[in-house]
Write a structure and sequence with these properties.
It is a single chain. By secondary structure, this protein is an alpha/beta fold. The chain folds into four domains: 146 residues, Response regulator (Rossmann fold, 3-Layer(aba) Sandwich); 96 residues, PAS domain (Beta-Lactamase), CATH 3.30.450; 74 residues, Helix Hairpins (Orthogonal Bundle), CATH 1.10.287; 144 residues, Histidine kinase-like ATPase, C-terminal domain (Heat Shock Protein 90, 2-Layer Sandwich). It is 46% helix and 24% strand. The chain has 14 helices and 19 strands. Strand 8 and strand 9 form a beta hairpin. Helix 9 packs antiparallel against helix 10. The longest helix is centred in the middle third of the chain and has 45 residues.
């Protein structure tokens, strides 16, 4: 019995060009107990297709013979037009080829007219309507989850057992810079920037679970590195092969912000320390200088030499305190509209002797249009000079190559200073802008800190990339000046 449908009327449309066959089929349907049926008849192809497209029926019975066209043609057109109600194909004689083709196109059942009975029709209607209802639910869920998949701001993707991309949403292509077709030609291994992560995902391909919220670095099509949090699960497909589902959240900007905030905190802490030391040292230093002045008129000529030594070293200590204070606070800046090309040319002129003496190959790549910013020319020149001197000192004589590039990358102007020197060890790279940290034998560790301080005061940002024995690149970003 179709007990789950007995509470309402079941609307049936029979599309058959033979009226006698219609009466026979409809009479058998009406004999199905405990159910209410409203049965209509349509005797030609075009009207039948029009009725299916308009909807209004719960199930359709379609005869195979419909004039010059067939029920298969009608079935195909109805499915292409999005019909979700069940369609049952009727035929005068059994034909396995037609049966298989009908089911492949989308028919829910295939019945032979001469074998029709109340029981067969009851079973057919019940099965067809239950199946159609299940398919509607499946398609509804598929649309819902596909919509979530496609419109998620996070990258969502599917990988096969070799971690090759099978499917991905738009956020994945935007994150990695590849088109969908390009990604489907790639393995996840191709995108991993850290060799340690390659080993983790090799074990995952072998079936090992990956911990949730793993932080990884991915290489984009443009060669940039993106920091991401990834969650990935796997399940067996066909009983053997694994399929992986992954979610990635891009935290690159968050990492940059954290790094910038940490640098600012370090600078602020160093500044507070310097000001405290300056205050505590200057008070006794002033007393020493006052005492020296007082003793000048009371000591013999033999002792004046010692007073001079005390006075000279007191001034030296005072100069060091002033230098430290200048580092911790760049001082009053005078901002004017300047082009980065002109500031860089001025800076290169100051470092030119060092560049020439080491026979370094200098290459300049400037945008033809002036990269204008609001800048204190002298202060910014000092910042650039610190970077240039470090680059020159890191390179070998005669083989050094120094490249300086200034481009516009809306809404920023980007200054890139690259060398092919010895590079910076990874453990030092994270401490590069830390006050008093230096790898130089006689260094103080304030040059790059001062550089960062000046660039921050220009609302700029600085990024450093380096590889041992390959070189170092400084990227300095400034907000472009708008007229």
């Amino acid at each position: 019995m179709i007990t789950n449908l007995s509470n309402h009327t079941i609307r049936v449309l029979i599309i058959d060009d033979d009226e006698d066959d219609f009466f026979i089929t409809s009479d058998l349907i009406r004999q199905i107990p405990d159910n209410n049926f409203k049965i209509d008849w349509c005797y030609n192809y075009d009207q039948g297709l029009k009725s299916i497209n308009a909807g209004g029926y719960d199930i359709y019975f379609v005869d195979y013979r419909l004039g010059i066209k067939t029920g298969l043609d009608l079935l195909k057109e109805a499915c292409e037009n999005g019909c979700q109600e069940p369609i049952v194909l009727l035929t005068g004689k059994g034909n396995k080829v037609i049966d298989v083709e009908a089911m492949q196109i989308g028919a829910t059942d295939y019945l032979i007219k001469s074998e029709l009975s109340v029981e067969k029709l009851e079973r057919c209607i019940r099965y067809s309507m239950e199946r159609a209802n299940s398919l509607r639910k499946i398609k509804s869920n598929e649309r819902k989850y596909r919509n979530i998949f496609e419109h998620s701001k996070d990258a969502v993707f599917i990988l096969d057992e070799n971690l090759a991309f099978q499917d991905m949403n738009i956020a994945t292509t935007k994150l990695l810079g590849y088109s969908e077709e390009e990604l489907k030609q790639k393995s996840f291994f191709n995108l991993l920037a850290n060799s340690d992560h390659i080993e983790i995902f090799k074990r995952a391909a072998a079936g090992e679970e990956i911990k949730d919220d793993l932080e990884i670095e991915l290489l984009t099509k443009d060669g940039d590195t993106r920091n991401c949090i990834i969650s990935i699960t796997h399940e067996p497909i066909d009983g053997k092969k694994l399929q992986f589902q992954g979610f990635m959240h891009d935290i690159t900007n968050l990492k940059k912000t954290e790094k910038a905030n940490l640098q600012i905190e370090k600078l602020a802490a160093a500044g507070r320390l310097v000001r405290t030391l300056a205050h505590e040292v200057r008070n006794p230093l002033n007393n020493i200088n006052m005492s020296v002045e007082q003793l000048k008129n009371e000591v013999s000529e033999d002792l004046e030499l010692y007073l001079h030594i005390i006075y000279k070293n007191s001034n030296r200590i005072n100069d060091l305190i002033r230098e430290l204070l200048d580092f911790s606070k760049p001082g009053d800046l005078v901002f004017e509209k300047k082009s980065l090309q002109s500031i860089m040319d001025k800076t290169i002129a100051q470092a030119l002797d060092r560049i020439i003496l080491k026979h370094i190959n200098l290459q300049l790549r400037y945008d033809s249009k002036p990269a204008e910013i609001l800048a204190d020319e002298n202060k910014l020149s000092i910042a650039f000079l610190n970077v240039l001197i470090n680059a020159v000192e890191s390179m070998k004589e005669n083989t050094g190559k120094l490249t300086i590039e200034i481009i516009h990358h809306n809404p920023f102007h980007v200054v890139t200073i690259s060398d092919n020197g010895c590079g910076i060890p990874p453990e030092n790279l994270t401490r590069l802008f830390e006050p008093y940290f230096t790898s130089k034998r006689n260094g103080v560790g304030l040059g790059l800190v001062s550089t960062l301080n000046i660039i921050k005061s220009h609302k700029g940002n600085i990024e450093v990339h380096s590889k041992i024995n390959e070189g170092t690149t400084f990227n300095v970003l400034f907000p472009a000046h708008a007229d």
